[in-house]
Amino acid sequence: MLRAQTGEALMRVELAPQPQNPIPDLSLHYSPELVRAGSAFGLAPYQHSRLPLRLFEACRIATAVINGCTVCMNWRAQRDLRILGHEGGVIEQADAPDEAMYQAVLSGELDKLTEKERVAVRFSQKMGTDSRALGEDEAFWAELKGLMTDAEIVDLTHCTAAWMAMGRVAHVLGVDSVCTIGGPLAEAA
User: Fold this and answer.
1) Which residues of 106-122 are buried (b: 16+ CB within 10 A; e: fewer)?
2) Buried b vs exposed e over 129-152: b needs ≥16 C-beta within 10 Å?
3) Ordered per-residue pLDDT tens for the chain, 189 residues
4) Reduced to 3 states, what is the DSSP secondary structure of residue 9?
5) Residue 93: what are its φ and ψ, rounded to 5°?
6) Measured between alpha carbons, how far is 110 from 58 in angstroms, rounded to an integer?
7) Cα–Cα dist 10/176, whole Å
8) What are the distances in angstroms from CA 163 to CA 60, 62, 138?
9) CB neighbour list of residue 173: distance below 8 Å, 6 or more residues apart
């Protein structure tokens, strides 16, 4: 089992070190078909989303905060997908977020986002914390539909579902504690 320098267990399942994999691959030892399907679901938003990259990343970071996933909070799509050998998709867009945007969402300073980005982030947050209330909040839906198309809402809903699912898997099993994808949070620790 991978352990912290203090001897504290980080992974919740046994997994031999995988220095060749920046994100440990559970499929090498456990439920390969299921783990690979989950990984494909987690990668699908990056490959197929049509959301503006800055909005996409703001919502992803907000979801990472809810999930408590360290690797997700450290993740920067344009940098890290390329490190993993993935090209194309949402990361090819010109509206790349800067580090100030990431830090604003991490710290809850949503006033630094556009109105559309703020409502989209609130959507992802509500979906991650109280989906029942979100489904019944007519005032919020009116605000959301005033700023986003139905196509964007469906896209964002599926992206948020993937981020919630795979971020929670990574955090619950401790994969986020041994991932070597770096970033501002890792450098500050």
Assistant:
1) eeeebeebeebbbbbbb
2) eeeeebeeeeeeeebbeebbeeeb
3) 444 444 444 788 998 888 888 888 999 999 999 999 999 999 999 999 999 999 999 999 999 999 998 889 999 999 898 888 888 999 998 888 999 999 999 999 999 999 999 999 999 999 999 999 999 999 999 999 999 999 999 999 999 999 999 999 998 998 888 888 765 544 443
4) strand
5) -70, 155
6) 9
7) 9
8) 7, 10, 25
9) 11, 12, 13, 26
The CA distance from 48 to 164, in Å, is: 17
CA atoms in the 13 A half-sphere facing the CB of 129: 12
**112/133 Cα distance (integer angstroms):** 26
Per the CB < 8 A criterion, the answer to whether 50 and 151 are in contact is yes
Q: How far from 188 is each of 149, 182, 183, 184, 185, CA to CA, in Å? A: 38, 10, 9, 6, 5
